[in-house]
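Table 4 source record.
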Amino acid sequence: MKRALAAMPLLAIVGLLLVTPGVALGDQAFQTVRAPYHSLDANTYPLKNGFVVAVHMNGPVNFEKKEFQLHGAKPNTEFLIYRVLKIEGMGTLTMPAGFSIVTDDHGNGHIITPQSPTNSTLSLLKFLGITELTLTNVLYEGGTPAYAADPYVTYLDWEWTP
């Protein structure tokens, strides 16, 4: 009986650790977003479906990760990923993300793009004190915009960055 009573606090702690919160702690500042892609010219750039999933860890090693997927897009094509940043009171800025997604014979493509908080775009946003912006991910073939994702609001938490 004494052993059972002594084990009770340990069992209570283990029980608390097994209970998960309703919202992941990393999602407190920025909820994970899934933004679907749309073709900007269905005749030239077909698309069965596609999306980008944006996850912001806002941490000192991985600040964000984005997963891009295309299905039934233009086959055997490299698309450069651009970010269109709309910052209230500052206008809109379109800039390359530094990554590309390549489709196969069936028009399927996939890439995961991690970003360090020392990325030049993120460093600039931190320097300017930007904590909220509207972001649209656009895929270009050469200089032509082919696919655009739905825009979403991004919240940037600089507390954990160098």
